[in-house]
Amino acid sequence: MPLNGGPLSPADINLVRDWILNGAPPGEEAISPTATASPTSTSTPSPTATPIPPSATPSMTQPPVTGTSLPTSTRTPTSTGTATPTATATPTMGAAVSFAQIQDEIFTPRCAVVICHDSASRSGSLVLEEGASFDDLVGVEPSTPAARDAGMLRVDPGDPDNSFLVIKLELPQATIELGSPMPLIGDRLSDSEIQLIRDWIAQGASLTSRARLPSH
Q1: Structural domain of residue 115, as residue ranges?
Q2: Residue 60 domain-assigned?
Q3: How far apart, in Å, are the Cα atoms of 117 and each of 34, 87, 168?
Q4: Is residue 167 within 8 Å of 181, Cβ to Cβ?
Q5: For 2-29, b where at least 16 C-beta lie within 10 A, e where not — what string?
Q6: Do 156 and 162 touch, CB atoms closer than 8 A?
Q7: pTM for this one?
Q8: Does residue 49 belong to any structural domain of this protein?
Q9: Going residue by residue through the chain (216 aa), what tens digit of pLDDT does each one get?
């Protein structure tokens, strides 16, 4: 269709199609061509941007340092110069020690007794009675061989440590070489009594009084 003439144009065919679609109304109603709806273009969704995590803000606080604590610094010594030697003070002269004091306080009551050093007993060939003791002590060799061989004297003036009298007074106990401590009878002499004899010898072991030097 149509039999006569050429075929309808596409526009004419669309006009007939639209009339039918509109209910085929009688009369000359204007047929508004139905606009063919353009397919809705599907928009490609924009890719969602992956949020970038905020950069970690570096902590301003430094981590505590662990480990062995630093040693306390040793103070650097001040440079040392040549020290000026301090002059040694001269020992102060003390009270004089007299032989008479030793005789009266020690020899007569403690040593010049029976079986010891009286004139009858003469133990060790030593008499410590008044009038005889000084001559039997000062500068005399002891009768004990070991002490004599060691170069000791009964009283060595100026040297208490080489005086056999002091050795016997300070002897802790009897020995084969040196014999028994003195005094043999009664209590031992006190430290102050022994020191008195030491000081007398250190002063020179004189019959007369001399200034007493401090003990060492």
Answers
A1: 95-208
A2: no
A3: 166, 46, 14
A4: no
A5: eeeeeeeeeeeeeeeeeeeeeeeeeeee
A6: yes
A7: 0.54
A8: no
A9: 666 667 778 888 888 888 788 877 776 554 444 444 344 444 444 444 444 444 444 444 444 444 444 444 444 444 444 444 444 433 334 468 999 999 999 999 999 998 999 999 899 999 999 999 999 999 999 999 999 999 999 999 999 999 999 999 999 999 999 999 999 999 999 999 999 999 999 999 998 754 444 443
Note whether residue 65 is domain-resident: no
- The whole-angstrom distance between residue 190's C-alpha and the CA centroid of its chain comes to 41
**Total number of domains in the chain:** 1
Cα(110)–Cα(176) distance, rounded to whole angstroms?
24
Task: Select from 167, 195, 187 the least CA-distant residue to 179.
Answer: 167
Q: What angle do CA 210, 211, 215 make, to 5 degrees?
A: 115
Does any domain span residue 43?
Answer: no
